[in-house]
Amino acid sequence: QRTIAIAGCSYSHVIQCRDWLPDEIGAIAWFSFDNPGQSPRIPIFSGTLFLPESFKICGQHRYRHDAALWSFREANRLANVNHSRGRALLQPSVAHFQQKAFQELPEVERTAEKMIKAGKTDEALAYITAYTNDFATLTMKRWEEHRNELWHMFGRGF
């Protein structure tokens, strides 16, 4: 028996299903790469048409700077070298992205639902796809910044 948040985790997700919403937005996969205790959850709607190109690249067997996984893994692994200092750096960003999603999603869902009810399903799908991709890109960029901060923090020793 183990907890879900371990350093060797590749990804994790929690599926949230809401039958009162249209199918395109009724389910969200709250997805995180690498250690779920150190990575933000990215909301991916069931109607999302595509994800960033870096999501298509496997980084599981070797380092790939173009794989989304490594946007998170490198910072998370560096943070584990000195867990108390690393955690103090990452946790505010995990909380920030969680709060961002909780604040923004009700409006995103209302907007998409109105579009769908107005017969503009294609526009709604493009809208939620753009939201998901923008959210994912922001999290990847932030974790790449954390990687740089951690190298700076530990550059002369761990």
Can you describe what's shown?
The structure is a single chain. This protein has four helices and three strands, in the order βαββααα. It has helices spanning 23-26, 68-81, 83-117, 121-154, and strands at residues 11-17, 27-33, 42-45. The chain has a three-stranded antiparallel β-sheet with strand order 1-2-3. β2 and β3 form a beta hairpin. The mean pLDDT is 92.
What is the average of the pLDDT values? 92
Write down how many β-strands occur, each being a DSSP E stretch of 2 or more residues.
3
Annotation field: number of helices: 4
Largest sheet: 3 strands, antiparallel
Radius of gyration: 17 Å
Share of residues in helices: 55-70%
The neighbouring-strand order within the major sheet is 1-2-3
For the record, give the distance between the C-alpha atoms at the N and C termini, rounded to a whole number.
31 Å
Q: From N to C, what is the helix and strand string?
A: EHEEHHH
Structural class: mainly alpha
Shape: elongated
Low-pLDDT residue spans: none
- Oligomer state of the chains in this structure: single chain
- Our estimate of the beta-strand percent is 5-15%
